[in-house]
Design goal:
Layout (H helix, E strand, L loop, with lengths): L1 H23 L6 H6 L2 H20 L2 H35 L6 E10 L6 E10 L2 E6 L10 E4 L4 E4 L1 E3 L33 H6 L2 E6 L7 E9 L10 E11 L6 H51 L11 H12 L12 H5 L10 E7 H12 L6 E8 L5 H4 L5 E3 L20 H7 L4 E3 L12 H10 L4 H6 L3 H6 L17 E4 L10 E6 L2 E2 L1 H4 L33 E11 L2 E10 L2 E7 L12 E4 L5 E3 L1 E6 L29 H8 L2 E6 L7 E9 L9 E8 L14 H14 L10 H19 L4 E5 L3 H14 L3 E4 L8 H7 L2 E4 L9 H11 L4 E3 L4 H14 L3 H16 L14 E3 L13 E4 L2 E2 L15 E2 L1
Parallel strand pairs: 1-4, 1-5, 6-7, 9-10, 10-11, 11-12, 12-13, 17-20, 22-23, 25-26, 26-27, 27-28, 28-29
Antiparallel strand pairs: 1-2, 2-3, 5-14, 7-8, 8-9, 14-15, 15-16, 17-18, 18-19, 20-33, 21-30, 23-24, 24-25, 30-31, 31-32
Helix pairs in contact: 1-3, 3-4, 6-9, 17-18, 17-19, 19-20, 21-22, 22-23
Amino acid sequence: MSASYRDSIRFLRSFALEQELDRVAPLRGSPRVYRHGAVYVLLPACSFLFRQTVCIMRASIRRSFHVMGWLCLLFLVTTLSSNTCISWVRTASIAGEPADIKVAVVNATILTMADQGTVPNGTLVVRGSKIEAVGGPDLPIPEGYQRIDAAGAYLTPGLIDLRSSLWLDASDLEASGNDGSLSIRDAIDPVDENWREILSTGVTAVYIQPSSRGAIGGRGILLSSWPDASASPKILSDAAGLQMSMGTSRSNRERLQRTNSLKAWLQGLVDYKKKWDEYESQLKKLESKKSETETKETGEKKQPAKDSGKEPSKESSDAAKTQEKAGEKPPEKPVKDSIKEQFLPLLAGKIPVRLEVHNINDLRFAQELMKGFPDVQWVLESLDELGRSTHELTKTSTPIVLQPISDAWFPGDASVLQATSNYPELLRKHKGVIGIGTFSGAARGSKSLRTVAASAVAAGMPLDRALQAITSVPAKLTQVEQQLGTLSPGKDATFVLFGGHPLDLTSPVLRVFTEGIDRTQELELNSKRPVSGDTSAKSHNGTEAKPMTLPDRLPESYEVISRRVWVDGQFIHAVIQVRDGKIASVQKVDSDVTELKSGIARFDVNDLPITPGLISPFATLGIANNAIAGAESNSLPIQTSDAIDGSNRARERWGGSGFYHVALASSPANTIAGQIDLVSTVPPNDLDVGTVAIEFVLSESARNAGRFPSSLAGQIQMLQEFFGTGSASSRLFLPDVASIWWSETSRSKSVQLRDRSLISLFVVREGAELDACVRMTKQWGLRAAVYGIKSLRDHLGTLAESKATLILTSESEEDYLWYGRDVVASFDQGVPLLFAGETGRDALRAAAECVRAGVREEYVLQQLIDGPAALFQIDRPQIQVGEDADFVVWTGGLLSGHAPRPRCIVRGSLLSVEKEESAPYWTEGAQQ
């Protein structure tokens, strides 16, 4: 028995200590640490208790009593020790920082989001958990304060997501109600640790609320992204909002029913309040009358009776009171309603109502509802199907909360936001405040808040207003404007230091403070990283580029001058002369050019970068979604260029985004997916290069239980057979002619892959798939590229040995924080990086996120502009004499994420795209 006991204890110790404690040991500050900290005390205690229990069973009664005494003492000591241990770890990890913090952040560009505006070279002084002072470089700093030099960095209030799912379980996201009785705080998952990734992106608070399935979903709350001292989610505002919805009705009859339902609920609340107000008013009148009567009776007692000269007796006085009160009826007390009691502050505007509307019909019914209850603080959210009716909102001052824009450069074609060119008008002209939320169903979705705000700027929203939409406006709409949202004396010292403008997607988060405490170490941020930001959008003196314009119609001959023209792998100050659709000259200049020597029109775009048209190394243009997996998982003879025509809207959008060629991938439903063709995205569409790669899919999307291969092993077998023999044996009957053509095509492409004249492009998702890809690459000597993999950490060495190119996509909601670090690690080991996405903006965002993670910006720009041509071994696009005048003028930088759509010039003329009815980003600047 003792042997099995020892084995059990040994197993428990190894399991708890090795599997749990070792796993959470690196996560200093994690709530899980102090939940398991007592294991150090409890496991030895359990071991001793078990041993003594065995002794009791074997020993005499006398010894048993003796041991029981020791057991009681041990139990007390163990309990106290565990509590002490838990308290110690709590103190070390969450709540034990010094209460009297004295910090001064100096030399930062402070975006206060308050009346003080932007403070260059500013100083922010923190004392304890509050901001003590904000000012310029002359602001005095008391002695004893820790100085943090933030030269070149931007300091902002902590960002707030106005619609998040942090700390919510997926099943709870669907919960809703119809009477407001639900509170989202009951659905919070206290052991969810995604807050660490959210806080690492600068988002310090999130608003969560019940589902919009019901008419009145329930109460929403505002949570801090940093847990409280007990490691539970910290509630900043329990009255942050009440969710209501106009529903997703298909007819006005249903909308009217929903409106009447909401109106009846609100009117019931008004009537309830009115009853209680009347009751309390009558009660006060009765009390007042009673007080007057008592005062009068007291006066009568002091005066003797006139007829007898004696005071009236007590009996006569009581009788008089009874007679006086005869016929009086006390007011009837209304019945208490606990649900209505919670929402009485709503009628005074102290609990905002978040009313979800989608299209113009929803909006009109919502406006009718809001007119009936003017004292309620209404907030409209979603607004994703307004179309050309956004002008309805520009006339009002009702606050709105916008959800993400799918493609800011082409909002009319967006899959999520079905708006048109009127959408930028709403972003600029709306009279009320505008907030922004991620509206993500993923717990880590709030980390994309900066990206969502940058997209709004790209769609037409002013930069300062977009920053307000994720700082001061959310604080106001969630009733915490006295604590958060701006950097002002007396407010919570919750702020973020960025390595550039916060809406520049290349800017890293350097430091995060919550309530005065620096969380940089716990979040594993690199506060010593050099300040970055998209330098392609900077002028020669480091300031923001000053944009100017090109006319909608360019003359046959003209010049464009910029300080940033991409020539021979670098930006130079140059003048590009265009004549009859060709580049006549590219002249490097060493100083500002003011004279016109050529006698033709000149357009000075100052510091805006000019590059050749870009190439995407991987794109689907929507055709992959239409492909159907056949009975054979081999579609090698298929050329993707045969699947598109000139009417493909995705093709036009890529061209309008500055990508003049894309490597068109096939369907991921087949293991041998087909030939990847490099196709042109701009007219005339006769610039297709031809086949540049063969696509192989090792991910689960190509596995089918009804055909071969149905597993990764089968996929590897198919590809090994293809690389080895030049063909993958078909399991279908084919006519002789088709069989011969199929075999010849397979052998030809297999030879081209092995002699490295074509790229083997592998689509993989998991680590095992990547390992198989690397093994085949090394075995057959392939020139390979890998697309789709996000789990890189354990495969960096083998990936570098294979010399395969890694095609990166932008971060998704499911990606963990360490994905960016793995990308940097792969770059450090010499793995070539390229960038792709569903749209041109997605590909640029992937490049920007790579810079933000720590990859050198010069390398990223080089790979973005010239890398795909080098991969496919084709002539790289260049701005040089004699070539077609095909180049792109980037309106605000390639990587910022918030720049408007670029001006694309093809054969000397501006590319014709959808005309936006927004104010021009540039100003007229042609010189004649």
